[in-house]
Amino acid sequence: MTSGSPAGETVMTIGGPVPTADLGITLMHEHLFINQMREQRRAGLVNDLDMIVREVGRFAGAGGGTIVELTVAELADGAAPDPAGSHNREEAGTGCSYGSARPLANVTALAEVAARTGVRLVLGTGHYRDPYLDRDWFDRHCADSIADELVRDIKEGIPGTGGVRAGIIGEIGADKWYLSAAEERSFRAAARAHRRTGVPVTTHAARWPVGLVQLDLLCGEEGVPPERVIIGHVDTVKAPLEYALELAARGAWVQFDNLRSRRPQDLDHLASRVLGFARAGRLGRLLLSHDLCTTADWPDEGGVGLTHLLTTVRRHLVAAGLEEEEFDQLMIDNPRRALAGA
Question: What is the pTM of this model?
Answer without folding.
Answer: 0.93
